[in-house]
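Q: Structure tokens for this one, please.
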Amino acid sequence: MENILVLGANTRPIVCSLKNIGYNVYSSDYFGCIDLKKCVTNFKSVLSQKPYFSCGNFSKKFNPETILNNASEMIEDVDYIIYNSGISPSKLPKRKLIGNRDINNIENKYELYKRLEKSFGDVFKFPETYLVNNLENALEIATASESKKFLLKPLEGSGGVGIQNIDGIDPDTDIRGAILQEIVDGLDVSASVLSSGDEAITIHTSEQLIGNKWLGQRENYGYCGNIVPYIQQISPKNQLNNLHIEEIAADIIYDLKLIGSNGVDMIIKNGEVYVIEVNPRLQGTFEASEAALSINIVQAHIMACQGELIEIHKPKNFAAKMIIFAKKRSIVGNLNMKYVNDIPAQNVIIEEGEPIATVLTSNKLLKDTVDSAKKIVNNVYRNLTPTNQ
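A: Here is the predicted structure, written as tokens:
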């Protein structure tokens, strides 16, 4: 049996899918949720999750170097490595990597925009984007356009963390290494693409949940989950042929010469597609993809990296993934319940705005899928106790 290591902020979904197809799985991650442990041979996590101790603030405590250092011995012991959000492959042994090996020009959002604009500028739209080095420069550009609004986005990063509207921004904000980008008001959609390098196919599209306050997300552009597959909206503002989205996403991944499972984030406005980001790795939609398509996405990813695209049929079900964030500083009760994943240890303290757990539901009907997910979200909140300790 082959040994495989998964690195990232949250490795649990990939780890458990690998376990299901017969790998000995190792993990180095940040959260160390309790449902990760049943799937791993060995693991190290940044958080220790002790009862009545705070788990702290992810944006302040997360450091990719810590995850890599924790994994140093495991890297030597395993046959293969898969990385996900939070980890760049640049410091990993290329001979062991399953996935894209050189993504520097994709992780750098400004370089990515320039490349895509050159290749596809007459095919679809891009939000107006500038590389800025200081707040004065950003404000000057933003105020020169009376008809558009702008946001500031870190040059690298994922999950919508650190994105701020330029209006009302703190004048002391340090924005070195940022882009100023036009705000496109539309529907957030993502496409999941499998690529062998010689061929790329979109296996599904999904509606993204972004900045949802009812899920406790404090970041205006923070990622909260997905609903798979995306169903064309009736509103003219968002109406678009799904096939068109699928073709755009596949063409982008093929043009960038990416392999395995990759994602393309878009916004649909007035029937037009604006490309926002490319995720050159297994995406946050991962679990919902598996539930909707009834396949093992990691296996499909591995096979694609080896040059083979498996046959994938249209989604048989709807699936909803919802990430729950703490609305108040809280002590966690027993969250070991059906359809709840990424479970923290009982009695740990989660700070306001920090992730608590993930809900995943699936059903033949869209409404039933979403309604059941929302019901479970409410059950999770009922198992939290606000605290000042």
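A few notes: The chain has eleven helices and 19 strands. Residues 296 and 330 are 35 Å apart (CA to CA).
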